[in-house]
Prior knowledge:
By secondary structure, this protein is of the alpha/beta class. The protein has 2 domains: 4-146, 3-Layer(aba) Sandwich (Rossmann fold); 152-302, Rossmann fold. The chain is 37% helix and 17% strand. It has 13 helices and 11 strands. The chain has helices spanning 17-22, 24-33, 48-53, 71-83, 96-105, 124-134, 155-160, 186-195, 209-212, 225-233, 244-251, 266-269, 289-302, and strands at 8-12, 38-43, 59-62, 88-91, 110-112, 167-171, 199-204, 218-221, 237-241, 256-260, 276-280. The strands form 2 sheets. The chain has a 6-stranded parallel sheet with strand order 8-7-6-9-10-11, sandwiched between helices. It is elongated, with a radius of gyration of 21 Å. It starts with 7 loop residues before the first strand and ends with a helix. The mean pLDDT is 91.
Amino acid sequence: MIQENKxxxxxxxxxxxxxxxxxxxxxxxIRLRYHSGVITLxxxxxxxxxxxxxPYINDVIVDNRAPIWRVDQxxxxxxxxxxxxxxxxxxxxxxxxxxxxxxxxxxKTEWIGRSAEAEAPVSGLAGLIELLNNAGIPVQHAYHxxxxxxxxxxxxxxxxxxxxxxxxxxxxGSSSQHLHKRWPYYAALATALINEGQQVVVILGPEEADxxxxxxxxxxxxxxxxxxxxxxxxxKFVVGNDTGPSHIASYLNKPGLAIFxxxxxxxxxxxxxxxxxxxxxxxxxxxTFDQVxxxxxxxxxxxL
Length: 304
């Protein structure tokens, strides 16, 4: 009989980035439950380096979620999963794709997951917590994971950009698939903050060079995951959209604010933790920079 803590465990979580950040505390709790187990994470190619550094897992398998007609890629992943001696699979993705893996590829392995017929949870994180609770895995760190492993020393990057004092970090972008999540007044907010003597750092993703042309402040682009966490960790306040870097700032317990429009929900995103707050509006264009600036000023005054 296999001892509980010696199990080989496959955890499935593809992403997106915000969803993956929500899973860090869950991974931490799985590690505590199976402290001597071998834990492998099945995730998307974009998060390979991030997963490889995560201290709560031992190995990573990449799943590019190939379309069903790419039989060659499907078969390659199937063989890889079937070659592994998994004793338990914990499905944190709970998608039609992962249920297909269960039904056709690994039908005899013990599987913890949510059925397609189950009622949708109030949020992704609430669903993960419920999943672990139902499986008898204690949940302690879902809302407060240790993220210190993700934070790189970015002093050289800050020096290179002439950032020499406390700064406010702005995250004006979002993925190109979710342009509707972008609040349109970051340039006005950055200008007002600079006029008040604040140092502003604008963090841009790989698809956001066009945004930088309109924004004052110190523009930083091309960061890897760990440098991104390092720059966010050094900020005294963070303002961002409903996007992955805002989730990172939240789980780093930074004071900050995430701005939500009508297409997403702050409650479902579970981004508001401790010092990180949210604003949710029906029309992003109707949320003025003065309103956001008032919130930010209130925080800065309370922390003088």
